[in-house]
Amino acid sequence: MGDHHHGPAKGLSRWLFTTNHKDIGTMYLWFSFAMFILGGSFAMIIRAELFQPGMQLVDPLFFNQMTTLHGLVMVFGAIMPSFVGLANWMIPMMIGAPDMALPRMNNWSFWILPPAFLLLASTLFMEGGAPQAGWTFYAPLSTTYAPPSVTIFIFCIHVLGISSIMGSINIIATVMNLRAPGMTYMKMPLFVWTWLITAFLLVAVMPVLAGAVTMMLMDVHFGTSFFSAAGGGDPVLFQHVFWFFGHPEVYIIILPAFGVVSQIIPAFSRKPLFGYDSMVYATASIAFLSFIVWAHHMYTVGMPIAGELFFMYATMLIAVPTGVKVFNWISTMWRGALTFETPMLFSLGFLVLFTIGGFTGLMLSIAPADFQYHDSYFVVAHFHYVMVAGAVFSMTAAVYYWLPKWCGRMYNETMGKTHFWISFIGFNLTFFPQHFVGLAGMPRRIPDYALQFTDFNMMSSIGAFIYGSSQILFLYNVIATIVAGKPTSDEKVWDGAEGLEWTVPTPAPYHTFETPPKIDPVHAHS
Amino acid sequence: MTTETSTTEYEKYYVPEKSKLAVFATIGLILSIFGASHGLNEMTFGDGEGSWTILWVGLLFFAGTLFSWFRITIRENIAGMNSAQLKKSYVLGMFWFIFSEVMFFFAFFGTLFYVRTLVGPWLSGEGEAGRMNSLLWEGFQYSWPMATTPQEAVGGAGSQLIANNGEFHSYHKSMAFSEASAWYAWLPLWNTIILLSSSVTVHIAHLGLLDGNKKKFNIWLGLTVLLGITFVGLQALEYYEAYGHYGLTLNSGIYGSTFFMLTGFHGFHVMMGMTMLLIQWIRSVKYGHFTADDHFGFEASSWYWHFVDVVWVFLFLFVYIL
C-alpha cells in the first residue's frame, strides 16, 4: 500500500477519509479562516454597540455572550488551528518526511473540531443563551451564575483539548522521528523548532485546562465546592488553574508566529537568519518561563506580596529572550538586499506591532502599575497587538509566502499589498486608541461607557470595520489565486527562500519525500 | 514505486491509505458529549429528556470504532507493514500521551496543595487574606481533613452572607488513617499493597515474555489483571463505606471534593489500564500474539499501568496519610 502512492481521491471522501498531511493542513486552514470570519463578526457586533455610548443594538447579556464567544472562537477556533494547519502542511516538507508520523490520528484531530465549534455556536440559540463569563470564564460567573449552556461549553473544551493534544503528539513524533538523515535538530528550520516547543507546551497545559473545566462541571452538577468558599474552596483557585494553562497558551499562539517570521524575513533579506542558535534557545527559554508567570494575570486578586513580587520579576525576565528574537530579526535585515513583497510587509508589520504589544506587556508586568491598568481597555489593546498584529499578521504572511508553493499559482501582488496597508491602518486605528481610553479608565467587557471615551471608541469601531472588511479582500485574493492565478512552476518561488520545501516541484505534489532527501551537510537551516 | 536502493529504513514508512476510522470516531465522540451535556442539564436544570440514550449510543459507537481501529493497527503490524521507525512513532505517541495524563492529575494535586496550604488557613483568618474570616466566615476553624465547612461554621447555607450555591456539610468520618479502627481495617493500606504488587507482577510478566516464556507471561499478566480487579473492588467498597456510613460525599466541602476527584479519576484510570492489560492477555492467550521482540501493545499497556501505580503512591501520601 505504501509503495504505490497515487493522487487524491475524488469527491467528499477525499476530505473525510484522508490521511494526507497536505489535505489535512488545507482543511485546518480553511476551517480556521471560517472561524476567523465567525469570531470577527462577533467582534463587529461588539464594535457596533460601542460606536456610541448608551445602549444601541444589543442587550448587555448578549453583549457578554459576544465578548465570550469572540475570544473563544478566535483563540481556539481561528488562531490555534491555523497554525496547526500550517504545521501539517509545512513540517513534513521542511524536514524531508513522507507525511506526519500518525496519519489517521491526524485526520481525527481535525475532524472533531468543526462539530465541537458547531455545538459551541449553537448555544447562542439555547434557553439562557451562550456562555457569557468571558473567554477566561472565571468562577463563579461560569459556575454558580452560568446558564445551562456552560455544560456544553465544558465538553466542547474537552474536545478541543483532545484535538490539540493529539495534534501535538503527532507533531512531536514527526519531528523527533521522521527527520531525513542528516537533518539534525540544529539544522531544522526555525518554524519546525518553534512548533516542536509549542507542541510540548500544548501537551503540558491542555490537560490542566481539562482539569479546570472538569472541576467546573463537578461544581455545577455534582455539588462539589472547588470554587466555592462556603465549602472550603476558593474562586481564586479557578484563576490559578486557568492561568497555569492560559499563560503558556498565549505562547502556544505566538511561538509558531515567531517561526513563520523567522522563515520569511531571511527570504526577503536574502541573508541567512541572524543568530539561529540563540533563536532556538530564546524560544526554549520563553517556553520555560511561560510556566512560572501565570499569576501576573491576577495581580489585583489579593495575592500575598511575595507572590506579586515573584510573578512580577519572572514576567519581566521574558523580555530578555523576546528581545533576543526581535534584535535577531532586525540584524537579519541589516545590510540585506531587501524587497517588500506582501509576505515581507506582513512580517514587518508583525515586527513593529508585536514589539509595541511586547512593550505594553512589560508595562502590565509591573504589579503596582497593573493595579491601574487591570481589566481596562489598555489590556485589550495590549493583547490584540500580540494576538492580531502578532499571530494573525504572521499567519497572513505565511499564507502569501507559501500559497504559490501549495497551488502552483501566484497571487496578485498589488491586491496583496493593498490588503496589507488596509489591514495595517485598520488594525492600528482600532487598537491604538484603546490604549488611551484604557489608561483613562475605561473598563473592558462593558456594553456602555462614559461620554468622554466616545471619540476614541468611534475611531476604534471605524478601524475595526476597515480591518474586518479588508479580510474579504484577502479571501478574494486567495480564491482568485487558486482558481485563476498566474501559473508558476519554479521550485523556488522566492529567489531568497531557503529550505527543503523549495526543492520539491511547484505545486507541491500530493506525496513528497517518499524517499528521504539528501541534506547538504554544509548548508544548515534557512 | 521507488527503485532507489537506500540503506535507510525511512523509505518504508507506512502511510495508510484513506481511512474511515477518524470520521466514525468523531461521530462517536460528538454524540457522547452531546448526550452527556444535555443529560447533565436534564439532571440539574430539568429541561429536555432522552439525552442519556444519546450518550450511550455515542459511547457504544465510539468503543466500537476504537476496537476496529486497534484491530486494524494490530493486523497491519502482523502483516509486517510497520517499520522499526513507525514503531518508534508509536512509542513516542504513548510516552507523550502518558505525559499529558500526568499533567491532568497535576491539576488536581495542585488544587489539593493550594487548598490545604493557602485557602484553608486564609478562610480561618490567617494572614492578610484572612480578614475575610471575621466578615464572612466568623468562627470557622481550619483543620485537615476539614471537619466543618465554612458554611456550617456560620450556621448553614441560609445564614451565609455570599450567594448560596449549594449545601456543603461535613462528614462523620474521614478516610484518614487516624479515623480507622485498626490498621488492618484500613482499606487504603491494602489497596497500596495490591497496586504496588501488581506493578511487580506485570514486570515479571514482561521478563517472562523477554525470555520467550509465554506461559509465565500469561500467568503473571493474568495475575496483574486480577490484582487490578481487586483494587477496583476495594475502592468501590471504600466509596460504599464513605457514602453509606461515613457521610462523606461529593457535597462534603472541599475535603469530599478533592477526595472523590482524585481517587475517582485515579480509579477510572485503573479501570482503563486494567482493560488495556486484559485485552493484551486475551490477545496472548487466545490469539498467541506477542513475541520476545515484538510486543508493543503489551509494553504500552504496562507503562500505563506503572503510571497509574505512581499516581496512587502520591494519592496515598497526600490524600490518605498526610
List the helices and strands and how they pair.
The complex is a heterodimer of chains A (526) and B (322).
Chain A: H1 12-16, H2 21-49, H3 60-95, H4 103-111, H5 113-122, H6 149-177, H7 190-221, H8 235-269, H9 276-289, H10 305-317, H11 319-333, H12 342-365, H13 367-373, H14 377-407, E1 409-410, H15 413-439, H16 454-484, E2 486-487
Antiparallel strand pairs in A: 1-2
Chain B: H1 21-45, H2 51-78, H3 84-123, H4 132-136, H5 150-153, H6 187-210, H7 214-246, H8 253-287, H9 296-321
Describe this structure in words.
Chain A is an all-alpha fold and 526 residues long. Chain A has one domain: Cytochrome C Oxidase, Chain A. Chain A has helices spanning 12-16, 21-49, 60-95, 103-111, 113-122, 149-177, 190-221, 235-269, 276-289, 305-317, 319-333, 342-365, 367-373, 377-407, 413-439, 454-484; strands at 409-410, 486-487. A two-stranded antiparallel sheet of chain A has the order 1-2. In chain A, helix 2 runs parallel beside helix 4. Residues 1-11 of chain B have low confidence and may be disordered. By secondary structure, chain B is mainly α. Chain B has helices spanning 21-45, 51-78, 84-123, 132-136, 150-153, 187-210, 214-246, 253-287, 296-321. The radius of gyration of chain B is 25 Å and the shape is globular. Chain B has 2 domains: 15-81, Helix Hairpins; 87-321, Four Helix Bundle (Hemerythrin (Met), subunit A) (Up-down Bundle). Chain B is 68% helix and 0% strand. In chain B, helix 7 (214-246) runs antiparallel to helix 8 (253-287). Classes of the chains: A mainly alpha (526), B mainly alpha (322).
